[in-house]
Amino acid sequence: MVKQLFLVLAIISTSLAHAQYNVKWGELAKVKGRVTSVLPVEGSTFYTTRWNGGVFGSLYLGNHTNFVLASSGKVQSRVGNSVASVEGVTTIHGEVVVFLSDKIEGKNTLFMQKYGTGCQPEGTAVELASYTMPKGWKRKGYFNILHSQNGEFMCVEYDIPGSKEENEKFGYKVFSSEMEVISEGEYEVPYAPRTADVSNRYISNTGDYFLACKVFNVNEKGKVKDYSTLEKIILIQVTPDGLDEFELDLDKKRIYDMSFSSDNDRIMTFTGLYGDAGKGQTGVKGIFYFRLDFDKKEIIDDGFEKFAKDFITEGWSDKAKEKADKKEAKGKGAPQLYNYDIRETITLKDGSVIGMLEQYYVRQVTTRDPRTGATSTTYYYYYNNLIVYKIQPNGTFDWVKNIPKYQVSTNDGGYYSSVARFVSDNKLVIFFNDNLKNYNEKGVWNQSVNAASYRKKSNTVAKVEVDLLDGHVDRRTFFDRTETNAYAVPKLFETDYKRQEMLVVLIYGKKEKYGLISFGQ
């Protein structure tokens, strides 16, 4: 009797542990065009954008109620009677707005046009920002729209045209969620454009605007010889009163990718990937971070975490490991990681930081027909292993974990590849397309890394839970192609942290299916 009671309690406990990630599904329905983004409103009510008509097609807006497409309309690329360019689509307080740029009367101007639930423009477009274009200027120019991680602030930034000899000039406006301007101005990057590059732009959870600027080494003639080596990285806080600069000590390391994250206490973390700066050194050696108190205008701490050899070679074949050992023994360098991009940087409530990296690269193969001389090119898109890490509030690295996966597709931009994720209840939860061969009969990962499959009998969506306290990784199947009759598109999954929900997107041919994961308590 005691054993039976224990078994029942164990089953209930397991069920409750996974109940919070159950999916509420809509129906698989035929639609026109292919979805390009999802804009949450509340639960199963949301908007989508989709492209219909091929190369010369148009962007459409769709309003979904209880997952069903209730209304649809073409996004109008006009401001008044003037043709404009669509710069982006988002929601503000549950209402859709479209950003449009228009060159008129010697100015390039960004407008915001509101759309109603019927997916048609409502009222007149509101001007957000503009700059004067020099006479005869034919280059496109640009507007860029940034959003804070907490959704409370938006920044519009733009390029101010100038000559090639002048330093780059930009303008910006920061808006609150009520569309009130809280900061604006113009600034000049304090380095010559040929020797520096603005690599990152960021709007914090408190509405502060930052840049990261790579400054390259130059030779005696003042020219950059090698764009893979840096003299320094400068963090710049842009304010109406000017620029506050913070130089990062790279200790002669090469920086590959970087990302910002901030909390609500005006502490900003800047993290990324580094490698050795020596000749022929192109691989990633580890992770770095810098933390900045932008109230006190000072760098709090910094650190570099080198990947251990066993971590780098995890999952390698014995032959690959042996080859790497021989290369290292000959003094040709230790094993390294390659082609990793930052996918996520999140600052938690306690001030710790979670980072996620993904190996991504494109391989191009061109073949020639010997009979006709005609050539054809195939593009292979690879989205492979993930690296997840945690930095403690005191600046130390808590743990670093490798999550093996293998995704490859051709000529599609990796539409079904990569991952979706959210953070909840001290867990980082990750979803991606995988292969049932990588899991046992209970749906638990069996340590295999077969390529993600898109066949009905072998496709599955994996769910990986990373415990943020100790880095423990639990990996198992979540749902299969046989259950949903469609394939997941993780890149389009959208997380709404205010409501603790994630919208799930699936595609099969010309049909779409949506789901809703609730991960709140």
Helical content stands at under 10%
The helix-and-strand class reads: mainly beta
| Uncertain ranges | 1-19
Most strands sheet: 6 strands, antiparallel
In DSSP terms (H or I, runs of 4 or more residues), the helix count works out at 4
Number of β-strand runs = 37
| Beta-strand proportion | over 45%
Distance between the termini: 33 Å
Cα radius of gyration in angstroms: 25 Å
Outline? globular
Mean pLDDT: 87
Characteristics:
521 residues, mainly beta, 6-stranded antiparallel sheet, 5-stranded antiparallel sheet, 7% helix, 54% strand
SSE layout:
Blueprint: H1 2-19, E1 23-25, E2 29-30, E3 34-42, E4 45-52, E5 58-65, E6 68-74, E7 78-79, E8 82-83, E9 85-92, E10 95-104, E11 107-115, E12 121-132, E13 143-147, E14 153-160, E15 169-176, E16 181-188, E17 196-203, E18 209-216, E19 230-239, E20 242-248, E21 253-262, E22 267-276, E23 286-293, E24 298-306, H2 309-312, H3 318-329, E25 340-347, E26 353-368, E27 375-391, E28 397-403, E29 407-410, E30 420-424, E31 427-435, E32 459-467, E33 473-480, H4 481-484, E34 487-488, E35 494-496, E36 501-508, E37 511-518
Describe the fold and architecture:
With 521 residues, this protein is mainly β. The chain has a domain at 171-306. Strand 15 (169-176) and strand 16 (181-188) form a beta hairpin. The protein starts with a helix and ends with a strand.
Question: What is this entry, summarized?
Answer:
Helix content is 7%, strand content 54%.
